[in-house]
Amino acid sequence: MVNVKKVQVKDNSKKKKRSFLGKLKKIKEWNWKKVVTWTPRILAVLYIIFVSIFAFDESRFTLPWFVHLMPTLILTLIVIFTWRKPLTAAIIFFILGFGFTLIFKTYTNWLIFLVISLPLILIGILFLLEKLFIKKKDDLHRQRRKERKEKLMNKHNKINKIKKRK
Asked: For 2-55, what is each residue's pLDDT tens digit?
């Protein structure tokens, strides 16, 4: 008699495919965290580049040319020092946005306001949204850490009780 082994053939055509909404939900969960974090920073860097273009409007590269780069330098330092502090960045960008509005009188012309002051205010709002988002995330991590610590303490206490009995 001949031994015959049964071979199972896998049917790849019947693979479970994720629905479009399932894929979208997974993308939402992963990407929104990154979008909320990186959007204000990228916009701040783009705004710095935009403001630095005005320095090249000067035809001669003399001392006044360097003076035109001062806003760029100040904004760059602000972004560098507040990179990981979204609440501080939000407050500073709000102050800068409203300060530019009052000092440079951008409220007199709506187009200048849209180009110069409004981006700073929007960047401040985005940093504030990030802070609110991160706060919730940090609270969740603290709560999970606390629960894990309590579980470990309970296990440790049970082990000590068993050792004391013996």
From this structure: 666 665 555 555 445 566 666 666 655 556 777 888 999 999 999 999 998 887
Question: 119 vs 99, 123, 157, CA distance in Å?
Answer: 13, 6, 56
Distances (CA, A) of 60 to 53, 63, 68, 89, 159: 14, 9, 12, 34, 79
Residues of the chain with pLDDT > 90: what percent? 37
40 touches 123 (CB < 8 A): yes
**Residue 101: both structure tokens together:** 């509005």
* pTM tops 0.90, yes or no: no
Closest CA to 79 of 34, 110, 43: 43
Contacts of 69 (CB under 8 A, 6+ apart): 52, 55
For the chain, where are the alpha helices, taking DSSP H only? 20-53, 63-68, 70-81, 86-103, 110-112, 118-165
Lowest mean pLDDT among 8-12, 31-35, 82-86, 116-120: 8-12
Q: One-letter amino acid identity for 155? A: K
Q: For residues 128 and 86, is the Cβ–Cβ distance under 8 A?
A: yes
Dist. CA 29–CA 15, nearest whole Å:
24
